[in-house]
Amino acid sequence: MTGWHSISLWMEGVEGGLTPRPALESEVTADIAIVGAGYTGLWAAYYLKTRAPDLRIAILEAETAGFGASGRNGGWVMGAMLGDERIVGHLTEPRRRETWALVHGIPDEVGHIAQTEGIACDFRKGGTLYCATRYPEQERRLRGWLNDLYAHGQTEDDARWLSPAELTQELQIPSILGAVYTPHCATIQPAKLVRGLAETVEKLGVTIYERSRVTHWQPGEIRTAQGRVKADWVIPAVEGYAGAMPPLGDYQLPVQSLIISTEPLQEDVWAGIGLSRGQSFSEFSRQVTYGQRTADNRLTFGARGGYRFGGRLRKDFTFTEAEESLRRYLLGEIFPQLKDATITHRWGGNLGMPRRFQPHMLLDSKNHIALSGGYGGEGVGASNLGGRTLADLILGRQTLETHQPWVIQDKTIQQALRRWEPEPLRWLGYNAIIASFAHEDRVLADEHSAPWRRRMAQALAEWMQGLMR
User: Fold this and answer.
1) Which of 394, 426, 427, 443 sits a CA distance of 20 to 30 A from 161?
2) Among 233, 311, 176, which residue's Cα sits nearest to residue 58?
3) Calpha distance 229→31 (Å, rounded)
4) d(Cα 437, Cα 286) in Å, to the nearest integer?
5) What is the pLDDT of residue 245?
6) Using CA of residue 241, residue 4, residue 391, residue 220, what is the dihedral sign?
7) Alpha-carbon gap, residue 128 to 183, rounded angstroms
8) What would be the CATH architecture of the domain defined by 123-188+254-352?
9) Rounded to an integer, what distance in angstroms lies between the CA atom of residue 105 and that of residue 174?
10) Would strands 128-132 and 280-283 be described as parallel, antiparallel, or unpaired?
11) Mutual orientation of helices 190-203 and 106-116 as an angle, nearest 10°?
12) DSSP 21
């Protein structure tokens, strides 16, 4: 395949060529075989090899390192995981404090490894701003979320309210009602991180086979069209591409995320926006809207996503007119000065959504399969913890990472994970939920909406969101 640089703004920014590594064309033997040269697979290889240097590790990648979500995401390294307040909040002290510290420490761990290994990935730990804009119901919901964080063991050092006046030094959005700021997030150039990790593990002695699509896998063996790997342990690190490796697709639903990026903006424009320290931001609507200021002064902006009937992967991310118009509209609503900004890049990717809407890190000791996933769009950071955890589980280490509520040991994939409902229930359910979120947003953004309509729109969206838990 050619044109890997055109996958995203991030892959275009990778220096040098993207010449593929040699494909697997024979039978090889390894201690550990990893499917997928994305973040999870590479982090697992890194921690395994640094903790047990004699291990023979082979990674098989269908395209090239960073082809999947690792080279297409929004570039947030979050000290958080999908549904973590629900999971961590149920723990007793002091376990809860230890677990929050572990999760919040993800950005620092990634930054430390990047610095240690010389991976230049534009790492900036500026925190995240979750913003209430456009209508007062969003502010009330955001304040309620902050109170939930406090009730589940977080403190003002972890998340605090910023008034519109306090926000002027961080982010300037017209009619902003307030924001929750958390320091536990960094922004990066994600393709530089994944490509740098691939080079790092190679130097450690890991073999990466690219353009080596897996056609069959089972305990102890992985096959491609031209070769085979026999291994003691198998790690399928495929996330949104799980449908290509049955039965993983029954437990991991591929959904799509779409992102646009402006041209580099002048300093006087940035003076009216902010984000001078590498902060990321998100509007606190139920439909995810997020962005960051890149190291070369672009504004990247992601909004909404999609699901294709039958869990089909989206391969062509050429935007339709409607897809671009929606993101331009949302960008202009938040930053009116960017309504006419030139959009230079448009891209998207497939990510994995688990049925329980929380991550899992699984060790099937009987079949020697280790699995980490279910990141739900928050995998840039969570995959680091996943890789660390899988390494410790396989090596039999008793660590803080291996004693977390999302870690499942001595169960098969079928026993441990919850299946998605069959079609057409998946498609109908997803679209009904998204439609309720869009309806709520339209009603609440209209200041002339009757109170009863506002209450009904919120109640419907809240009920539909509850179906996701």
Assistant:
1) 443
2) 233
3) 10
4) 6
5) 93
6) positive
7) 6
8) 2-Layer Sandwich (3.30)
9) 33
10) parallel
11) 60
12) P
Token readout for 104 is: 């919040």
Interhelix angle 379-395/39-51, nearest 10 degrees: 40
CB 418 within 8 A of CB 360: no
Question: What tokens appear for 99 in the block?
Answer: 């677990």
For residues 271 and 419, give the distance between their C-alpha atoms in angstroms, rounded to a whole number.
48
CA distances (Å), origin 308, targets 311, 325, 375: 6, 20, 19
Give the containing element (helix H, strand E) for 279.
none
Nearest to 58, CA basis, from 83, 88, 26, 91: 26
Nearest to 265 by CA among 220, 287, 295, 241: 295
- List, for residues 102-119, the tens digit of each pLDDT value: 999 999 999 999 999 999
Token representation of residue 19: 């010449």
Q: Which residue has the tokens 């809240």?
A: 462
Which stretches of 372-450 are DSSP H helices? 379-395, 413-416, 425-445
| Whole-number Å distance between alpha carbons of 57 and 103 | 27
Residue 294: which of 311, 276, 310 has the closest Cα?
276
Query: Regarding the domain with residue range 4-73+190-251+356-416, which homologous superfamily does it belong to in the CATH classification?
Result: FAD/NAD(P)-binding domain (3.50.50.60)
pTM of the full structure: 0.96
The one-letter code for the residue type at 361 is M
Q: How does pLDDT run across 299-337, given as a tens digit for each residue?
A: 999 987 789 999 899 999 999 999 999 899 989 989 999
